[in-house]
Every structure is written in C-alpha cells, then in structure tokens.
C-alpha cells in the first residue's frame, strides 16, 4: 500500500511540474509591454507637401501635443515631390519601429497608388493606419479685387475665354486638383490648370496675379479670406461650412464637386500593434482636448477622430470608388 501511495505521489508531482512548466511557457510567450518611445529619441513626422499648406499646418499643430504626451521630440520633415509620392514612398520603406510616421492626405495617396502610370512603390497594404484627425473641404477662391464675384461669373468667363483663365490646382492628383477637374468637367469649361507643390504656392500665385483663381483646402484659405485678400466662390461638402458663412456648396449651385481632403496619420506596415495603439491614443487625447479643439477651429479645421480600425475601413471604401475620379483627373 505504501508503495502504491508513493507511486501516486510521484505521478501527481510529475503532473504538477508539467502544468507549472506549461504555464511558465505560455507566460513566457505572452505579449509584453513595448518599450516605445525611448525618451529623447526623435520621431520623424513626414509631410508630403510644402511648409505653410493646410496638411503641413495640421501636422505642426498636432506634433507638440504628441511630444508632451509621449515625452519625446516629434520633428516635422517636409518631403516635397511627386505630388506626395516621394514622402509616402519613404514612409512605406521605413523601419516599422514607430520612429517614422507619415501624414497622409486621403484620397490623394490612393489616387497615386491606383494610377498605373505613376508606378508608385506603395499601396494601401504598405501602411498601418493610426488615426484620421480632420476632413478638409476644397474651395475655389479668387483675389478680393477679382471681377468674379460669384461662381457663375467665373464659369461664364471661362466659357467665353476657353483655356485663358489660369486655375491653380495644387499638386497633380491631389484632392484640390481632382476637385478642380470635377468643376471643369461638370461646368463644361476649359481652363489653364497650373500645378504647385502644395496649397501655399498656389495661394501666393493667385494673390500675386499669376493665376486667376485657386482651388485649395478651405482651411488653407481661411486666413487670407478673413484678412480680405481672397474671396471664396464655392465649397465642396454636403453642407455649408461654419467657417464660410454664406458661401454655397458647389452641389447646391448645380455642380457635382464633392472631393475633400482627409488628414490622417500612418506608420509602415509591420509596426507593432502596441505602438500603433499608443500613437492612436495620444492623437485622440490631443483631438479631444479643449485647447486643440479651439486651435483647430481658429485655423479652419473641424476635428473628427477615427481610430485605426475605422480609418482602415474608411480608406478601403474610398479606394473602391476612385476609379472614375482617377480617369477624369488624368485628362487634366
């Protein structure tokens, strides 16, 4: 009997060791808290457009909040070229360690990726979404002393003078360019489209009289409108903007011009989910703060937060509808 109990005790002991060992193995394989960011190590926030444009302004507005919250520097890096292709290629190829972030403009990044002629080295799958922070309508603006007081004035003049009116349309295949193309197509007019490496140079060209009008993000125009330098003739969106009281939407004026820019942030695909979640949480904290809400409103932005999952779905749905828009833009 004693021998039997001894054998049973040995079996129980062995089973206990197996269970404990299995628990230890499972524990060892469990995810651990990621050590990111390393305090003091700079995070590069790459912006695809020239300094002073609405996307650049949005990134520079957000960066200080991320710095304070995460305790490490965020450096804005303007990588201009190829209508965003240079910057987004760099982000896609960067090490997926959280120290390179891209500020993207939707749908511009998708238009480039979907256009076979551009031979982009990236596609949607090369990025992990972090967050969307602000939808930004496009608007058509002229100098305050322009003879075009209304959208009808502008369109009538373009019809009377085919390809004579110079329209600053932003970067090629940028949302402002595509919105300008939508206006030209739906109004049945012909203009001389002039492209720049961002919204700021286009606004400057219009103020200097080098172009007759500019299609740009509404947030980028607001200071010049408020100072009396520019006048907005129409705006994209389903409803009028609170920042431009009295300015009608293109659609309400009979022209189906709907495309807006959506400012969002990404990291290279393969970046650990823990890092993505940390960044998304920090962005949300910034967007939800009263101070940020006020500062964004002062700059003409209407804050809207989307997290990684919602942004991924939004991005994919948008891409599924861009075929006809891309075909139209490539003709201008």
What oligomeric state best describes the polypeptide chains here?
single chain
Coarse structural class: alpha/beta
Total number of helical segments?
A: 12
CATH class of the largest domain: Alpha Beta
Q: How much strand?
A: 15-25%
* H/E topology pattern: HEHEHEHEEHEHEHEHEEHHHH
β-strand number: 10
CATH-level-2 architecture of the largest domain? 3-Layer(aba) Sandwich
CATH superfamily of the largest domain: Bordetella uptake gene, domain 1
* Estimated radius of gyration: 26 Å
Give unreliable regions as ranges: 1-31
How would you describe this protein?
With 332 residues, this protein is α/β, with parallel strands linked by helices. It folds into two domains: 43-136 and 260-329, D-Maltodextrin-Binding Protein, domain 2; 138-253, D-Maltodextrin-Binding Protein, domain 2 (3-Layer(aba) Sandwich), CATH 3.40.190. The protein is built from twelve helices and ten strands. It has helices at 2-29, 54-70, 85-93, 108-114, 151-160, 175-187, 199-207, 218-226, 273-288, 290-298, 308-319, 323-329; strands spanning 43-47, 74-78, 100-106, 127-136, 138-143, 166-168, 192-194, 213-217, 230-235, 261-268. A five-stranded mixed sheet has the order 2-1-3-10-4, sandwiched between helices. Strands 7-6-8-5-9 form a five-stranded mixed sheet. Helix 2 links the parallel strand 1 (43-47) and strand 2. Helix 2 (54-70) crosses helix 9 (273-288). The longest helix is centred in the N-terminal third of the chain and has 28 residues, at 2-29. The radius of gyration is 26 Å and the shape is globular. The model is unreliable at 1-31 (pLDDT under 50).
């Amino acid at each position: 009997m004693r021998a039997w109990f001894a054998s049973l005790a040995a079996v129980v002991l062995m089973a206990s060791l197996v269970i404990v060992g299995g628990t230890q193995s499972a524990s060892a394989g469990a995810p651990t808290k990621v050590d990111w960011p390393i305090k003091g190590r700079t995070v590069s926030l790459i912006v695809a457009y020239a300094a002073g444009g609405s996307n650049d302004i949005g990134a520079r507005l957000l960066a200080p909040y991320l710095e304070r919250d995460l305790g490490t520097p965020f450096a804005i890096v303007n990588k201009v070229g190829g209508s965003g292709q240079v910057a987004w290629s760099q982000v896609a190829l960067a090490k997926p360690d959280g120290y390179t972030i891209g500020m993207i403009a939707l749908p511009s990044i998708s238009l480039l990726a979907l256009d076979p002629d551009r031979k982009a080295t990236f596609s949607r799958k090369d990025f992990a979404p972090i967050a969307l922070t602000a939808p930004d309508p496009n608007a058509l603006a002229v100098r305050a002393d322009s003879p075009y007081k209304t959208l009808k004035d502008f369109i009538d003049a373009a019809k009377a003078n085919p390809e004579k009116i110079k329209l600053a349309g932003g970067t090629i295949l940028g949302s402002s360019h595509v919105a300008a193309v939508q206006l030209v197509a739906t109004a049945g007019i012909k203009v001389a489209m002039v492209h720049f490496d961002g919204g700021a140079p286009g606004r400057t060209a219009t103020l200097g009289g080098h172009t007759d009008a500019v299609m740009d993000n509404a947030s980028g125009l607001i200071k010049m409108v408020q100072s009396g330098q520019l006048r907005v003739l129409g705006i994209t969106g389903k409803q009028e903007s609170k920042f431009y009281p009295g300015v009608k939407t293109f659609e309400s004026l009979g022209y189906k011009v709907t495309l807006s820019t959506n400012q969002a942030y990404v990291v290279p695909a393969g970046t650990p989910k823990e890092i993505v979640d940390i960044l998304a949480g920090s962005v949300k904290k910034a967007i939800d703060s009263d101070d940020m809400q006020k500062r964004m409103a002062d700059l003409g932005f209407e804050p809207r937060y989307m997290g990684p999952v919602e942004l991924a779905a939004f991005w994919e749905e948008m891409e599924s509808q861009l075929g006809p828009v891309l075909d139209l833009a490539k003709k201008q």
